[in-house]
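Ticket #4471: structure export looks truncated?
Reporter: QA, pipeline team
Priority: medium

Steps to reproduce: submit the single chain below to the structure queue and open the exported record.
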Amino acid sequence: MTEIEKMLDGQWYFASDKALATQRMAAKILCAQYNHLSPQNMSERKQTLKRLLPNVKGAWIEPHFYCDYGHNIHAPFGVFCNHNVTILDGAEIHFGRNVLVGPNTVIAATSHHMNAKERARGLCRSKSISIGDDVWIGANVTVLGGVSIADGTIVPAGTVLR
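Actual output as written to the record:
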């Protein structure tokens, strides 16, 4: 089983794997391009987001935006991410319709091992995250792997969901 397969299966994996590192670098290059485009350059912004987030439709994402892979993020329509949103998408992250994500929010499907020796070896694990329809996530929220947020939920600013 490859490290990519282990990651997507929720097993412990080595994030330092060459294939994973290559995918992350490609996403980081697209994030950097997107974050440095003029707000007036709507056409290029849309094209860059399409390449970065191929499974996201109809999103409005303010810079600065960061993600690990991009292709593990899914949204059917109507996601708004305010400034400085970071998504660590080592597992699939599903957004429902009409989701608002406040500034400085971190959505982290990936975590490090709790055992210091295993953590030093570089072991990580990712768990999927599901965010329902009509959810409002306030500013400075952290959503950790394995969390599901029900339709219509308002997550208060500064909340940590684990």
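Status: closed, not a bug. The export was complete when the record was re-opened. Leaving a note from the reviewer for reference: Residues 18-35 form the longest helix (18 residues).
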